[in-house]
Design goal:
Length: 247
């Protein structure tokens, strides 16, 4: 006999504006749940999103890092270490799980965990860059590296802003722009699109930080001077009223 999920779904009606929640389960741990139109997804908050431990490790990335270390210990270097096709498939699958989770965590403003998950996928990218000789296997993931760099930078910048160290946030975003622009070219429409979009997004975030640093009063004072210079006295009067309200 199958299990009817109707009551479970009815207890949490689908609402696209309220479709995420973190709940405690029987053993005391917390999990992230997502309400979809026809079901519910559940993610572990720590470790692999699916709760699995490949080769009894925290992740397959950790397993491969241990394999590289063992290879170096045996041969003296990692020069001959190579990732096979199946290993690349497993990396790709694991990266997708972390991608799905950090998108949801970003919506919840859990920037610490977003940083952790994007760091994981950046480590994954470095393994492919260094040890995968098959271009198709490498690019299946690396074509999305601009996006991963962007999300990692945004999460770290948001943590800095929350801690009121905007200079650190600016540096994080500027370094990410530089890194994305210097990435090795990949012949993929997805790579081209993500690189342009990510740079534009980060530049916009930088501009917003600068505007907030200037503050509304200074910006209005500049607008007032422009209005006076252009002899737009109606506009100038309106700006003066706004300045009085702020002051």
């Amino acid at each position: 006999m199958g299990i009817d999920l109707t009551e479970m779904l009815r207890s949490w009606p689908y609402d696209p504006e309220q479709n995420l929640r973190i709940v405690s389960v029987e053993d005391g741990r917390q999990v992230l749940q997502v309400r979809l139109p026809l079901g519910i997804e559940q993610y572990e908050l720590d470790g692999r999103p699916d709760g699995k431990r490949p080769y009894d490790k925290e992740s397959f990335v950790e397993e491969l890092q241990d394999r590289v270390a063992a290879h170096v210990a045996h041969y003296g270097s990692d020069a001959e270490f190579d990732l096979g096709h199946q290993e690349c498939v497993e990396l790709h699958s694991e990266g997708m799980l972390f991608y799905y989770r950090y998108l949801l965590l970003f919506q919840l403003n859990d920037f610490e965990r977003v940083t952790r998950d994007t760091d994981h996928n950046l480590h994954l990218c470095r393994l492919l860059e260094k040890y995968c000789s098959n271009e198709e296997d490498r690019n299946a993931v690396l074509q999305f590296k601009p996006y991963i760099v962007r999300m990692n930078a945004m999460a770290r910048a948001m943590i800095s802003i929350q801690n009121e160290v905007r200079d650190v946030a600016r540096k994080v975003l500027a370094n990410a722009i530089e890194e994305i622009e210097s990435l090795e070219e990949i012949e993929s429409p997805a790579f081209q699109f993500e690189r342009i979009r990510s740079v534009n997004y980060l530049q916009s975030a930088l501009q917003q930080i600068d505007e907030e640093a200037v503050g509304p009063t200074q910006e209005l004072e500049k607008e007032l001077q422009r209005a006076v210079d252009e002899e737009n006295y109606e506009r100038a009067a309106e700006i003066r009223d706004r300045l009085r309200g702020i002051q």
